[in-house]
Amino acid sequence: xxxxxxxxxxxxxxxxxxxxxxxxxxxxxxxxxxxxxxxxxxxxxxxxxxxxxxxxxxxxxxxxxxxxxxxxxxxxxxxxxxxxxxxxxxxxxxxxxxxxxxxxxxxxxxxxxxxxxxxxxxxxxxxxxxxxxx
Length: 134
Prior knowledge:
By secondary structure, the chain is of the alpha+beta class. The protein has helices spanning 3-8, 17-23, 78-85, 87-90, 113-126, 130-133, and strands at residues 11-14, 28-35, 38-45, 64-71, 74-75, 108-112.
């Protein structure tokens, strides 16, 4: 999986309609990529940990994005990410290494598209196949 695969195969979650009217443009957007039982969420826009911090531009225009991994219970925490996907993914998390905070839900702030691709491929490798779920 590469950057374009992630963008092309994601569903886009846009700002609520009232923000479009009030501010005249999309201020942020999220891409959701379902990978097995997990969702890789990528957030980009004015209020997200991304660069540039602008809304209304294409996902390809961002150098850095905010990412999160969701499971059936919502946003995963660092301990679950580490035990499921390994240390290399856990190290990207905002609260990694913050004693007493690794059981908090977390995001991966300001990660590159190369890191996004690595995370997506790691999730894919650790996801059960459809036949394992039957």
